Amino acid sequence: MPSYAITGASKGIGREFVRQLAQSPSNTVLALVRDPESPGIKALAQSHSNIHIIKADTTDPQSILAAAEQASSILGGKLDVFIHNSNSVDLSTFSLPPSKVPFDVEATRKFYEEPLKTAVYGGAWATNAFLPLIEKGDLKKIAHITSSMAQPEVILGAGVDYAVAYSIAKAGLNVQVAKYAAELAPKGIKTVAICPGWVDTHEGPKPPQLVEATEVMLNQFRKIEPDLKGQITAEESVSQQLRVIDALDAARSGTTIRARFFEG
Ligand SMILES: NC(=O)c1ccc[n+]([C@@H]2O[C@H](COP(=O)([O-])OP(=O)(O)OC[C@H]3O[C@@H](n4cnc5c(N)ncnc54)[C@H](OP(=O)(O)O)[C@@H]3O)[C@@H](O)[C@H]2O)c1
């Protein structure tokens, strides 16, 4: 009866993890969200008795510790798989290249902080809060969702000079995942950073700026993969990511794995 906990489960890839995992009645799935009233996840939980919604902000240590305590009482103190998926970016600086980092300490901190808070600080707080449960679990797996935007061959091959803070935060996350693997190997705990692919997680009609930005990215990514058609669905991405998690063993622990050949 495997158990899973997923952060950032209110929408997008996180909610799709919850949806697919809940299809097996023997799974227990904890959906960690900032707002438990979030309509998409609430509706999913109402139709699946094996989904439990827990309030958790990964950028707030007290919130994530309280979530782990609640998880522990639901699961009897043990968890099999922890998936750290939550992410946040500062859209006001997302399109800027590194030469636009301002000569101002506060403004520079703001430029980098938002994605670091979820990927690196939040990644550590969330992992550490759930570690005692994972240690007692049977599968002992921790997955962090990263991005190929952190990989130099994608940055250089596609010419992606924007998303500076996001890419650096995900690169930091990848290293942190490797550090956890080195630390936790003696306890039999395996960690992995997974690139989910270029996934369409936008809800509702797309504004013209988003359509235009997607087209620009498609043309950039085609420099690496000429046959690329466009974004994949969250359903396709998550089913491939779950295969990566199923196959995770000690030999692969600490690595960054692409769920698909091409990643966004
Ligand atoms: N989509 C892609 O093409 C793509 C490509 C590469 C990597 N990824 C990675 O895949 C993961 C999921 O992406 P997505 O496209 O599904 O993103 P998304 O639709 O923007 O969803 C992000 C999720 O993170 C949650 N979140 C944000 N800040 C949080 C916080 N402080 N505490 C807890 N939860 C928080 C959001 O919750 P709220 O509803 O509360 O805001 C939301 O559920 C991310 O790590 C992303 O970097 C995505």
Automatic annotation (TrEMBL):
Task: Quote the Pfam families the UniProt record gives.
Answer: adh_short
Please, which domain of life does this record's source organism belong to? Eukaryota
Q: Please give the Gene Ontology molecular function terms for this protein.
A: oxidoreductase activity, acting on the CH-OH group of donors, NAD or NADP as acceptor
Among InterPro entries, the record links this protein to:
NAD(P)-bd_dom_sf, SDR_enzymes, SDR_fam
Name of the featured protein: NAD(P)-binding protein
Identify the species of origin: Trichoderma harzianum CBS 226.95
